[in-house]
Amino acid sequence: MTEWIEAKIKKIKIWTVHLFSIILEAPILPFYAGQFAKLRIKHKKKYINRVYSYVNEPKDKKLEFCIRLIPKGKMTNQLYHLLPGDSVLITKQSNGFFTMFEIPKCKHLWMIATGTAIGPFCSILQDESELYKIKKIIILYAVSYVTELIYLPLIKKIKKKYKNRIIIQTIISREKHNKSITGRIPILLKNKKIEEKIKYFINPNETHIMLCGNPTMVKDTQHFLIKYKKLKKHFRREPGNISIENYW
Ligand code: NAP
């Protein structure tokens, strides 16, 4: 049975009108970078829960979750208005297989995220323990507007440590930005704009892809990778090249 424990809010970081991060402390059990927890609050005398991936690395005492405010959403509206000292409930045990322990040794690991789904990658990138098995990490970080690249400074800081082992490519869908590619991931893969810009090419012998974000983006990208790049879904019992976070 799920064990819920009290978490104390330490800070709410407001990034944009719709994006915020909640920082809390709670005596959770150890988790692996890339995993998620459930948060629970009371709404009209009933409990409601949602799943969020940790942004922080496992050794941090402060637990961070990145959230999009859904206008009229029951959960996110209440979380947005929390103040330091308030509390919510969190699962003591974390879950999920979107971790580096599940990723085979490979030459090029592509981390593909839309919006708040950059969270689990921030956790994975900060926790160095399993990154030794990858030669090059290619991060595709896609958002609608430049101001939504809220974790880009953190990723750039991590990149400094790894030097040219990490490549970051931002993708903006709703405005032009000189360092970013304009558009949406599945189409930009299909028309080769991403590969031609970064000069790395997806192929089944060298590439592993971690996909996290908008469910339709995940579905369409996976479809493209299987059909046109001859990649296969990765399972423990049957190794392949595509790993997906799907907790929706
Ligand atoms: P989002 O909806 O993923 O939007 C961000 C970017 O994705 C925008 O550029 C958007 O393009 C593009 N996009 C949207 N639909 C697309 C599609 N069908 N194909 C290709 N690109 C598409 O941003 P979000 O609201 O932050 O949502 C993040 C998603 O990740 C949610 O589904 C969430 O459940 C999941 N997730 C969240 C966490 C977490 O911890 N918060 C962790 C893992 C996964 P447009 O501007 O053109 O719409």
Helix-strand makeup class? alpha/beta
Amino-to-carboxy terminus distance: 20 Å
> How many strands?
12
Sheet with the most strands? 6 strands, antiparallel
Mean pLDDT reading:
96
Low-confidence residue ranges: none
The number of helices is 6
Strand content: 25-35%
Overall outline: globular
Spell the H/E element sequence.
EEEEEHEEHEHEEHHEHE
Please give the order of strands in the largest beta sheet.
Answer: 4-3-6-1-2-5
Distinct small molecules: NADP nicotinamide-adenine-dinucleotide phosphate
Helix share bin: 10-25%
Structural summary, described in words:
There is one protein chain. With 248 residues, the protein is an alpha/beta fold. 21% of the residues lie in helices and 33% in strands. It contains six helices and twelve strands. The chain has a six-stranded antiparallel beta sheet, covered by helices on one side. The chain has a six-stranded parallel beta sheet with strand order 10-9-8-7-11-12, sandwiched between helices. The longest helix is centred in the last third of the chain and has 15 residues. The protein is globular and about 50 Å long. The model has no long low-confidence stretch (mean pLDDT 96). The structure holds NADP nicotinamide-adenine-dinucleotide phosphate. The site of NADP nicotinamide-adenine-dinucleotide phosphate has 29 residues, from β4, β5, α2, β8 and α4.
